[in-house]
Batch of 2 targets.
Target 1
Amino acid sequence: MMKSRREPVQVVKERRDEALHTLVRSIPYIQFLGIVFDRRGDQLTAIMSYDEKLIGNPEIPALHGGVIAAFLEVSGVIELSWSSLCKEIEASSKPTQYTLIPAHIELPKTIDFTVDYLRSGLPRDAYARARITRSGRRYASVFVEAWQNDRDRIFAQATGHFLMPKPLNVEKSTPS
Amino acid sequence: MVISNEAHARQFIEAIPHAKELGIWFETIGEGTVEMHMDYDERFIGDPKTKVIHGGAVFALLDTCCGAAVISHPEQRGLTATIDLRVDYMRPATPWQTIRAKATCYNMTRSVAFVRALALDNDDDRPVAAATGAFVAGN
């Protein structure tokens, strides 16, 4: 028989997933591009499923450069926002009663974003991972890389700088 | 039949599935200069709280406009590809306003085309974003 009481680690996992899904679902542009996120521990992988509307050059065919940039930028923003949200949730006095309200989320603002196009994007699924290289109170630097069928053959990489929002007052959005 | 680069640029960009998806259209095409517009669309919202469109959509508009500027340059033969592109986001684009991108291919070497661009909403004096990049030249 299953025990009704779950392990605390499972509860933490659910909270992390819940925060991630609320965050991702609240942004229409992420739905528009069809990007989803896979979480393993504290590592996120962004997945963009191939769709004909993402094509920039129909002759090759290749993914649009702007789509690739947007995919990398979305990965960076979600990585930054989700990791800081998780820290705030776990640091709050009642993480178990915490519910993230989409209208309360303040996202990091992109200051600049530079994309290197290393290879053309093939008409197939793409994956990206972002690494926060510096995280300060006001500014953060992020490095993002994307690949397709071969993890060792990066087809695009980017660096970006972001202005971080003031920490969300977690206690405020916690129902009493 | 000779197809001018200007006609070539217009024809090519209009055949780009993603540009069509974003509703991007040509305003003007010159020799190495292009202006393109993109209407506000709720599907492009990047910040649900402020309704501001995502930087990625602005990036896509600027990338498309810069590429078209390269193709429309008199010394360019054929298509191009982005080598790198940097976008500086100066302020959020005002919701519900059309975004205009203006790109210039200001230098062309045998293998590289250098481009810069601005993105504007209804306020001409305060750009939303600026881009600088290098594109594949020649072919």
Target 2
Amino acid sequence: MLLISCPYCGERPELEFVHGGQAHIARPGDPSACSDQQWADYLYRRDNIKGVHAERWRHTHGCGRFFNALRDTTSDHFLATYKVGEPPPAQAQAQAQLRKATT
Amino acid sequence: MSQALRTPSGGRINRARTVRFTFDGRELTGFEGDTLASALLANDVHLVGRSFKYHRPRGVLTAGPEEPSALVAIRRDAARVTPNLRATEVELYEGLVAESQNRWPSLKLDVGAVSGLLSPFIPAGFYYKTFMWPRRAWQWLYEPKIRAAAGLGRAPEHPDPDSYSNRFAHCDVLIVGGGPAGLAAAHAAAESGARIILCEQQPQLGGSLLSETDPGAALGDGEWLSRTIQGLMNHPRVTVLTRTTAFGYFPHNLIGLEQRLTEHLAQPDPRQPRERQWQVRAKEVLLATGAIERPLVFPGNDRPGILLAGAARSYLNRYGVLAGRRAVLLTASDEAYRSALDLHRAGVTIAAIVDVRPQAAGELPEAARRAGLPLHTAATVVGTTGRLRVQGIRIQRLDAQGQPQGAAERIACDLVLMSGGHTPSVHLFSQSRGKLHWNEALQAFLPGQSPEKARCAGACRGIFSAEAARRDGESAGALAARDAGLAIGAIIREPPLLEAAGAAVPGELPQPAGRPAIKAFVDWQNDVTSRDLSLAAREGFRSIEHIKRYTTTGMATDQGKISNLNALGIVARQIGKAIPEVGLTTFRMPYTPVTFGSFAGYARGELFDPVRTTPIHDWAVHEGAVFEDVGLWKRARYFPRNGESMHAAVNRECQSVRTSCGLFDASTLGKIEVVGKDAVTFMNRLYINSWTSLAVGRCRYGILLRDDGFVYDDGIVARIAEDRFHVTTTTGGAARVLAMMEDYLQTEWRDLSVWLTSTTEQWAVIAVQGPGARHVLEGLVQDVDLSAAALPHMSVAPGRICGVPMRLFRVSFTGELGFEINVPADFGAAVWEAVYEAGRPHGITPYGTEAMHVLRAEKGYIIVGQDTDGTVTPDDAGLAWAAGTRKSDFVGKRALERPVMHGPERKQLVGLLTAEPHVVLEEGAQIVPDARVTPPTRPIGHVTSSYYSATLGRSIALALVRAGRERMGQTLYVPMPGGNLSVQVVSPVFYDPKGSRQNA
């Protein structure tokens, strides 16, 4: 069971959270301008990354808030959690690169 | 004679307390402090079980949790029978009843052993190769027979009467293993200020030191062990858990511990939990899990009386038990000589020491020479004799190339000690996703770096001697405390001092050329031999994971603890690769088997799942309602009177609603209050309907899609104020609809000022439905004009009922004149009873969910999840009218624009009438267009809802049928086991299609 740091509440066990899929996939502002393929990509196409992955979590049994996280899918380590609307922290990404280079 | 092989003194048993027990009905005695295995050996009982596949006689092989052979069932009563327990771990208690397994009619005369005679014909993959045809026979013939012949213990047939507990804990450093390394680590970490949990699978702390006659000598400090244990037991920051196995390593340093609380007691208090499962979240984990001795692989190495060398030494030094009278030691390392020397001192005749190595020159072999023990170097074992107990071995000299030569020499014995060196226990480390590295000198995989905050100490990282392990543990413990955030001084951790001299190469002992070894067992528990592994390699298997599955090596309940490395050695040699190139199979949890009950913990029976009840629940119970589960809710399904059948009750309830008045508890409906200045924009973006035009005080049937265009939920939505909506959802959909709303609001439409509140449990909802509904409410409702003009169908008004504030909805899920009274939940029961009393003169009848289903189906109202299945669009369900056509966007709109979403071949909701009016179709039944076609054929649809309608005096059904609306009047067929049922396609609205009744 993962230990997840909610940006609003702090560290809590995974039981309190629901995974929300890949992060930073914005719903197109004008869906009718999308081609069928673009819409299908928005609906269904997701990365399957071995390494640092940006993903959504919701602290469902806590504050109820959605937030984003950078998780290394090979180790399950969270490099960072951050609020919706914030960009993925660059520093954490750099850390991840560093870790990768040294291990 | 009782305990004939007990030494006159020594050991850590309490000789003052004799313990009586039975094995297969035979009455025996042991001492307090014995395990079942040590007590059996003290009574010269070596034959303990029959093997899994060949029913070979098997005895005690080890003295610990790695035991693959001595598996027994322990019986306390009919319900408390625990199978497959390792006799080496079962603590003896007064009156213990143990039974052997996998034998019939008795352990000594086992009919199943005939399969052992056939074993040359039962190689690896035999079942797959032989029982191929006819394929169908697998189900009813081959598999049941094979399963009956092969196997271990039997599960008890009664429900488990014991209770189990769960506990969560946090600590700075969790230490797994209470041997010299673990104890030293715990002491060092605790002294550094860390909060410690130390767990040890055995009843006592000490680990390998418990098998030393003088632990102080092994450590160079006579008092260290008792002093350290005493210190830890009394330390305020240390929790010591004995009889506790760390069975699993989960992400982020969560460790599962299994604590056995009553297994060792003769008379457990029934109120006490049998086991407690801990979930420990540790800042740092320190693994001091020790090492496991490897057996040697040679023909006939599985007979009772053949033990690991270290195990025989444990039985002698710890339990005061001689495992035999005349012993042979087989070894490939110096360490095992200790066993021969100790047994020799205790009076056992050492008939031979057979060392596979060309020379044996270390301190211990020299000691053996000085003691006059007959030592054969450069020799191998080519066979053993004895049926129920080993009686002798045959050895052969090895030439300079390591090949057997000359004549075999037979040596009589009743005990064989074997040692192929030690394998570090890296199970938990590997579960933490830590990488292992092959150490050539040690011939072992050692822990490298773990992605978790974990470190290893002592024998599990190849530091085998007690003194070196203790020092390693000390520095590891201090480092763990520092990494857990405790400020301490500089720590020096010496590089591991690996004592690698003469480590045995895993694999099979050399055998004469052209005489392939048979019955040279690698995996005792699954009966896998070196021949099986070689065969798999010859047949082309290369991946160790495939070989494992094909031969089943390492797949039994012992998870290959003693067999994996030997298997790897044999395969590597056969395919000409180095061991690290072949790789290891995955270590999985649990380390040793864990009782199911401890995973369930308290979540059994009524506590299995939460139960949700409405405020009217007690009333319904009192009225004799029959309930059904809807999600976690208990809902009244029908209210039988005077022993009525469900069918009769539902008919009566439906007819009451149609002719007079019915009363229904709709409190489980999901309810969400959507509030804020942008509430209407939010609703417009989310639901397909147009909400801008919905006036305050009016309701609309809302449909919610996912962005893939398919129906997700539905429900009545009321506009309470300009900036406030009362949204209802399906009973099962409440949580997921709120989650979806929150998702869009928090992540996509953060510009909107809207608040969402779940009010499902705040409102009790009392539905009053039927032509008499208005009359029932007239005397109760205050501040609301109930007339059709003032409160028309699909409207809502605030008011009071019985003095209680209320939102009164004029809505109908029955097609009749209907009201849904929403009152605060605390008043629900009182208002319900008041309505029921007021309604009695009007013939009011409580009805349940079954009648509700029939009534709504008569009107063609869908239930999301029953008449839809996640592939149904609003148009498929006949609900396209609900969409706000002038909206530029709503969730699901873009997907609906795809051509396939409105093609002519889509399945559409229709009604079906059976040719035979009394026949009620099966829900889920398939529909075909042509009665002459026989299966297999492609159905064009299926029945989604089907009931008997008392109102119409016949059955009705709803169905999704390809191009259904173009088929009105057509005859279709529902193939059933008794033949085709012919049905006519009709409108899904069976009753009052104009809706005049609900508008009354």
